Records
---
Amino acid sequence: MRPAPDSTAGNWSDCASGNLVIDTTVPVVDPVVANLVDAVAGGRVRRRPHGRAASRYATGVLIQTRGADHGVAARIARAEWFIDTDPGKGKGHALPAADGRFDSATERIRTVVSAKRWLAGTHTLYVRVRDLAGNWSRPTSAKITVRFRPLFADGFERGNLAAWSAASGSRRLRVTKGAALEGRFGLQAASAGAAAFVADRSPQKRDSYRASFVFDPNGSRTGGEGQVVFSGLGGGGGTLFALQHRTSGASREIRVVARTPRGFAAGEWLELADAPHAIDIAWFAAGDGELDLYVDGTTAAQLRNLRNGKLRLETVRLGPSANLDDSARGAMYLDSFTSSE
Ligand SMILES: [Ca+2]
Ligand SMILES: [Ca+2]
Ligand SMILES: [Ca+2]
């Protein structure tokens, strides 16, 4: 049915005669089976998942299912997966056919994908398939729970800073009941003038790192600078990533920045209400390195392709540590700090 090429634009050949088959039969995909496995090696399972339980912090997910198409010209041509939120048909992560080629009416799928950059917790993993004519199946799904090796946690419930590796500007840091966002105690850190932060040195040459904490600006003012309230540092003391907070007039905003070979990549400034917020930050060093910010459980920023594969995280700082403006005022509350690989 393709028009014959013609050197003169606008001239079309007669249609060739023939039978035209239009495939409107939507393919289907079997219920997905998703299991945690220990290792990912080029999409293959390095260790057999059968008869051996995956370790507690496994980050490979073995996906198994089968797509089937029916009727005339039936053929499965493509498969994809995604977690939690549907990115749109054709915009998921591609899945290979188990036999290496999508060339028949039914295709088995058996592959391992990495969950290393997922948020800890329970996710819904979806798979759908597409036929040659472009019809997508409805997705089927499976629940899968990932967890990551813990590094350090402190909710300030001992009433002091003893759990931390160091504290800077300790007269400006106070563990108080008034600052408790969870439990009985929280950290009150002065926003004004000079540094007021606690440091944790447990990351030690880490190439993947996640931290979560509760942050309440508590009416503090930053004086217009993007005050650093949480940051990760490398061996030489250079900043690898940071969460910044700034106020100007009635506006209050946060953003993340991450080191690249050419300086820093910065996320958009995001409006933040003056109230307690659950902050999650995930940093990954790799050629396609990444920094993710979640606010109150929702993705707020994703900086990708950071080309930061040579960087290693040594220490993190919680509390105002840089871009400290003389006109900053007040004190913020921080609580419930946890971190993992
Ligand atoms: Ca079909
Ligand atoms: Ca095949
Ligand atoms: Ca607490």
Note: Residues 1-9 have pLDDT under 50 and may be disordered.
---
Amino acid sequence: MLGRYTTGPAEREISRLRRNTPGSRVAYPRAMPDHIDLRSDTVTRPTPEMRRAMAEAEVGDDVFGDDPTVNALQERAAELTGKQAGLFVASGTMGNLVAHMAHVPRGGEIIAAAESHLILDEAGGHAVVSGATAWPVPAGSDGSMDLDDIRAAIRDPGDPHQPITSLVMLENTHSMSMGQPLSAAYTSAVAAVAHEHGIALHVDGARFFNAVVALGTPAHELLADADSATFCLSKGLACPVGSVVVGSKDFIWRARRARKLVGGGMRQVGVLAAAGLVALRDGPAGMIERLAEDHVNARRLAEGLAGLPGITGLDPARVVTNYVLFSVRPRPGQAPLDARTAFLAEWRARGVDPIEYSHGQVRALTHYGIEASHVEQALVAAGQALEAAGLAPIRA
Ligand SMILES: Cc1ncc(COP(=O)(O)O)c(C=O)c1O
């Protein structure tokens, strides 16, 4: 079996804990299961440090606003992003939902990238709960929507036929473009277009800190002109649960009411927020800086994959965060999806677990728990899988 996780940072920390705690029953589970799980960065397990912080968290009733650990997390998130306030929510989807509930009136409209999480993967929450329509604008291969396309999508508020454009959304990093980070200059340019029309800008930053690290731009600069943002703790930052919404005090007050409405008011939730506080620490004590390792591993994975006969549609130079998307080249007469199915079955049989993605692609994400050695093992397995699936000539 390939890829047993015996040497990762979490395992080393667990061994240290066991050594230094005589007779203790400390037995944290492994950072990852016994295979190379590249399906998503959501599969990460909390670090030993997070588990300790969670066990020891001071808590209170957060619906009354008196959970000190949640309050500290919200303040830390606001400080990092340069916003007035933060709100801890259960998920990225809930973060985006309460953000549009706070920004958009019923009958309002949201401009968002056509292939964005909001439009494809949030169960139509903007329509079902907020009563808003969405106007999808195509995004380019760099993840950005053209400013003129955004301008053209803004409705005429004087025309009673039209919904009222009330929010522009950016996804940073942008998943469909293979995790491209959107720069501070671009974000500010979009904000300027929105603000000219009195419209707010919200950033869906499920992987916002991957953008921060890839661009080398501090979080507060990247969001300088955005009105609000959601970022996830439960993806590359390796927390078990949660996201934070940030913005002005007024906006966060409306988002807090919206969170209550959707049943997201939680009580002694400092036990979850404690992991987030660990993740958002500065330097190597936190989980932000570490994302650079995921980016290096993703680039190496992409370079190796792109060099294999049978892999197509992958330019490794475009891999700048933790996202790798690629296709497999079918045999003559073979349907592309059949080729993908055959390849995935063989790769999985060798202990590597990627996931099917839009446009017939395969997605592999790097994250905490995936180390350089796992990438090399995954590449060897990919070469073997292509041969076994009949998609590459068998090497002597
Ligand atoms: C771009 C983007 N936004 C939002 C979300 C939603 O996050 P969650 O799964 O925590 O609801 C995701 C999840 O993968 C995402 O990729």
Note: The CA atoms of residues 98 and 255 lie 5 Å apart.
---
Amino acid sequence: MDRPLPEFYTGSPVEDADLRFREAFIEEVRESLLSRHVLLTAPRRTGKTSVMNYICSNPGSGTLAIAVNVQDLEHPADFFQSLFDALHDAYPDFVRDTLAKGWDLLKKPLAHVKDFGIGEFKLSLRDSDPNWEKNWRQHGSRFLQQVREVDVSILLVIDELPDMCINIQRKDEELLRTFLAWWRSQRQSPTPSKDNIRWLVGGSVNLKGTLDRMGFVDLINDFEDMTLPILTRDEVMQFVHDMLAGREVVFEAEVPARLAEQLGRPIPLFMQMATQSLYRRWKRRIAQKTEVDPLGTDDVDEVIHELVRESGARDKFQHFYTRIRNYYPEPQRSAAYALLSMISRRSGPAGRAALYSEFVRVTEQQQSNEKEYELKRVFNELLLHLENDFYVVEIDEGGYDFSSGILKAWWAKFYAN
Ligand SMILES: Nc1ncnc2c1ncn2[C@@H]1O[C@H](COP(=O)(O)OP(=O)(O)OP(=O)(O)O)[C@@H](O)[C@H]1O
Ligand SMILES: [Mg+2]
């Protein structure tokens, strides 16, 4: 490799210089952004934020770009305040000399910054209109209008949008509808190809599925939907090879393939964790002896086995369990747990018919008189969610298995009964 060896990343987004395997996809996103707004979808822990951060910090000349994580925001007013704050953080001169021109809302915060420092901007922005929550639409429209009058392109990268939608909806469903409808109309006129504003939106929860359940999916159907590709087996093997060989680990030729096989459909985070564990195993070994055997396939198997049991790794897996509780409504929540437990107990895949019986058993406990066609609809939707969210994959005709072998083993250990 012609660059320094990347660190192991076990949770945080991968930094630009270390990001691999995404060049072609990043180019595709950039190309789409020339004429469309883009919605980036992919399951958890697969590298969305890393890709969005990369695009944000390399937006092309003449483009200002900011990225905002909106996971904890609960109101459109928070959304705009965060956007303005991020813009001010990254481009204070642009905000002061251009964006704020003739716009009173930003005057006071900017004066405050002059007196008390940059950290004061957001706080003071919040106070600059006592009715922010009522006036969010006016401020949002004014913002876009101000930007459209200047001769720069702006890329607004919004991470974890589905979470914000869910937060808003929990408090006020009508507000969510109003916000999405307002935003959509802003994305439509002018048409993106004539606009100097672009939105790149992503999130770990299935946004379409989430909004579909609320009946709002047509409010985001103008985005170009782009799916982050799954790492190929060759890429996984390349990764394992380079990360180990670059650290002077000696290993048998079958090691990368064995790890790829053990990971199943790879979740990049697990790939990183397992490779790091292999490296640590090697280091421990050479610390103890001067002559050591190369790492072999049984080391791979043991590392996977340990990862499932290790307490540090547990939080990372736990999250896959918890998010079902947070995002799947009943009766699908209980049924999701029951089905995943059932699959995890099997050595191979579970048949659709067996899954359906289990589903009926669980949901009948809760809703004994639901009509069968309704149950089937909910059942199909649930399998689709579990597939979209990467938990399971359909193997051949009608059989389902965990998509990640390592997650399956973990599930079996802690949640199978
Ligand atoms: N290109 C890559 N190569 C190797 N590992 C990667 C790559 N992209 C992501 N990862 C792994 O995935 C982890 C999560 O990355 P990132 O935060 O970008 O994903 P995400 O999809 O945004 O996650 P979340 O669903 O939590 O928001 C990283 O810590 C790293 O272990
Ligand atoms: Mg992310």
Note: The first helix runs from residue 23 to 35.
---
Amino acid sequence: MSIMKAKLSTLAIVFTLTLLPLAANASTILATGSTWEYTFADPTADPLWSTTGGAGWLTGPAPFGNVCCNGDGFDFATLWPADGTDGDDLWVRKAVDFTGFSLSSIGWDLGVDNGYKLYLNGALVAGANAEGYTFKWEYSGTFAGALPGMNILAVALEDHGGATAFDMQITGDAVAVPDPVSTLPLLLAGLGILGIGRKRSR
Ligand SMILES: [Ca+2]
Ligand SMILES: [Ca+2]
């Protein structure tokens, strides 16, 4: 390889390193214990129920439930009274911002006593029912319909009696934007290598 080719190769590597996104980092997008809008009055007759804002919604932190202090992470912060096997009882919703995350990497984890139907931007993502108590994490999945920027999560929840519980989290890989300050030394190093090469070739 000639000296000029070697110098150009070095410069190409430096510029490539500078322009490539930095390594992905798994991050929390929605933490457990987050604050949600919620209601105990069935809102689903309204086609806009899985948006946010509007009258008739309360605000409170997860976990929702009626169980405390057994060390499972579901100690309730907002009371969800026990109910019977008569369908959904509690509806929660929240805006989440996926800006800066790799959409295909975003995953959700959810625990509920007894059942749930999870929606993203009004489209059903997943749902299930199970007797017995819950754990972290009883259910997990991804979002096929995740959008860049703001998305609206909505969850219809049902109890079948006795204990109640609900909380969830969302995680994803943050796509870091190259930082001009941190990449400047790389650029200068590349230009320096080129400069040294010029002097030696004289
Ligand atoms: Ca019920
Ligand atoms: Ca129950």
Note: The pocket of calcium ion (ligand 2) is lined by residues 113-114, 159-164 (CB under 6 Å).
